[in-house]
Amino acid sequence: MSLFYYRFLFLFLFTFACSVDYGQTSRTDSLVLRSDEILKNIEKASPDSLKLRLLAEIIDLNMDSRPVLVQTWLTQGIDIAIRNNQSDKQLSFGLKELRLLNIQGQFIATIKKGNELLPLLNKLGSPLQKAAYLLSMGNAHQRTGDYDQAASLFTQAIDLCETNKIRDIEVRAAMNLGNLYQFLNRYDDMLLHLQRTLVKAEKYNLTEDIPMIKFNISNAEAHLNNYGKAITYLLEVLPYYQQTGNKYALGLTYANLSWCYFKSQQREVALDYAYKSYAIRSALHDEAGLAHLELNLGKIYLENAQYDSCLKYAVSSVKKSLALKLLADVRDNYETLFLLHESKGDFATANKYVHQFYAYKDSINIKESDKALDMKLANYRSVGNDAMNKDLNSLKRREKIYLAALGLLLLGLGYISVNAYIAGKKVLHKNIVGQEVTQTGTNYNKPGDMAGLPENSSLLKEIDDLKAENEKILQELNTHKSTDVSELRDMIFSNKLHSDAYWNEFLLVFSKVYPAFFEKMKQEFPALNQNELRISALIKLNHSITDMARALNITVDSARKARYRLYKKIGFSSDQELIDKIMLL
Question: Which residue in 67, 21, 62 sits closest to 276, CA to CA?
Fold first, then answer.
């Protein structure tokens, strides 16, 4: 009961504060008046076609400012379209619903609805509608942590928009693609990509998109610890969102100002902006936004040593984040709770949360992903083993050729020996028949003692010796290869490969097994750095993400991101394409 009371009091106070900052502009008032007018016309409209047109207009007017009402109008529009078998209108309202679900932070629902809508889109969708669909689905996959799928969807949207000159969605997709860099901790790349996108938006004169691009540039600056620059960008776009009444964007801007002021040690200003964002996001029912904002509030109160408030917001954020599967927010909240209880001297509870923090970093979702990856890799074990033993197989092929040649030589020698034996026997028989010879005390050469045969026996012995020597060399090569591979495996499980000195030692052994690997990698991909070559070597040895993380002394998540960065840098479209290529080198 007390929680409800405090929340009610909190929302009342800060909704009032936000209304002062919005500056209820004439534009906002005109939107409300126009919406009221449309509603009256909807009630009077008799043809369903007119109702659908009016519903579409009122939805577009209020999408960012009154999402709860928009949901009611969307449901109404979809029902009318289905009732009248107007598939094109059903598709149009369905696409608007995807955008609304994203605004409300219901990303799992967005993906589900989007998959249901796809057959209708493929059948009836225009290029504009398909581009809007790709953008909405990309946003949802990005927010649920499926960055590969998000990148693919944004790239498809950009290609489609460039072909059909759909400039606004092209720029938004490019902006979102740039934002993906933050999940890979590549903030310099993120900043550069967004700056280029800003130039494109200004070239196309997309005045509605320029503020959001600047907002995202502020994110990149903040991650690069340039909080002053980030605040400058945010204060630049703030008046635009206040004037246009875009509450969703306004709530984001307030939240980011809060974080930047907090990192700049201006905690009171940070709390002020956090409260303003909280009021807006509560009104919008933006659960994902509230989860992240409460995470930041917990951190701010922890820094202020206001432990009760820290606990309240961190626990609330954990519940929301778990429900929405916002993995990074769950992990970071557990870290806050660990630090909170450690600061209070409650080490038993702190120990519990630190275990949850690390357990969640290697959560069931991540482990299942690794398991799925291992299953995929299992299909390529034979390919990997063949690649590992390429040199040995080459030697074996040469041995077969050598043995075949020896076989032919032996056949030839055998043929000569048999013919010589037969010829000698004929000569001997002829001599016996043609002459009377007294055999007592007479010596003669037996056929088996012919002069050529001792030489043939010597050659055969030499061939057998060569064959035995060859087998011995092959056995030694196999032994050395096995020893080297075992040594490599021991080095990998030592967790020291991040050390340059240990890496050089690893490199010596690795080069014995794959003498031309690094040379080929550098020839084909000259832009790869030392760390990326290390990752390539571990892939060559058929090691899983978990093994790679252990070897390089990093987290599983960091190892996955490193693999992602590697195949993107090379220009491949998937991790599997990278594996296939490396296994063939």
Answer: 21
